[in-house]
Amino acid sequence: MKTHYYLGWFTQFFPEQLGKWIQKDIADRKSLVMISGNPWLDEEDGAAELSWLAHEGIQFDEYHRIHSQVPMDEAHTLLQNASVIFLLGGYTLEQNRFLAEYELLDVIRKSEAVVLGASAGAINMSAKWLCSRNFGYEVEESSVYDGVGLDDFSVLSHFDLENNMDMVQKELSHLSKEMNIYASNKDCGIRVNGEKIDIFGDVYLISHAEIRKLDETSVSELI
Q: Helix (H, G, I), strand (E, B), or coil: what is residue 7?
């Protein structure tokens, strides 16, 4: 079964239980391939995400970062040979456009690698997501974008839910009638393994315009 992690952002490192599961799931550590969160600019990113993995003792034989300076055919080959694919945090719209223009969507879907996404990366892993001025995007009108579609739900990641709950519920009401939406702030994560979904931290489910906080997966369920 394929394993996917939809992550928020972390104050320092992964929470203990989340870290343990990521350690367990990433058994093959030959090649980590990161997809830039700012792929059109030739600048390094991924330092924070790498520090989270390093804190758990997760090291790879090879590290690669895909951005617009990497030839498309090389990017495809790197992803096809990846042990782990990590969609980095950054600029959701720019990363989304890059994934489409570099024809990476289908390559990621077909991969047997563990796939992680942080913040913007998690949003782009989902089936669809809402781009709205109220979510911090510099757009005139709200639009729904297609993501990679690793799982049939939407994600709102790394957003201040506690102070904007009513707005979030209203903004996502229409999309939530089409598919479930998982919303989280910092220090949270969602693990999907086959049909099983595990919750780490404060994660909310928005479904059919109703919002409720999900129970965190207990330690006993993770054993």
A: strand
Q: What is the pLDDT of residues 130-174, one digit of tens each?
A: 999 999 999 999 999 999 999 999 999 988 888 899 999 999 999
Please write the tens of the pLDDT for every residue from 77-131.
999 999 999 999 999 999 999 999 999 999 999 999 999 999 999 999 999 999 9
pLDDT one-digit tens code per residue, 19-32: 999 999 999 999 99
Q: Which residues pair with 85 in a beta bridge?
A: 33, 115
Contact 203, 153 (CB under 8 A): no
Q: What is the pTM of this model?
A: 0.96
Beta strand extents in the chain (DSSP E only): 3-7, 31-35, 62-66, 84-87, 114-118, 128-131, 143-146, 154-156, 181-184, 189-193, 196-200, 203-207, 210-213
Is the alpha carbon torsion for 134, 46, 80, 200 positive or negative?
negative
Rounded Cα distance between 8 and 211, Å, is 18
Cα 195 to Cα 134: distance, rounded to the nearest angstrom: 32
Distance CA 52, CA 139 (A): 32
Instruction: Beginning with the edge strand found earlier in the chain, give each strand of the sheet holding 203-207 in spatial order.
Output: 154-156, 181-184, 203-207, 210-213
| Amino acid, res. 162 | E
Residues facing residue 62 across a β-bridge: 31
Tokens of residue 208, six digits: 């059919």
CA distance 174 to 188: 24
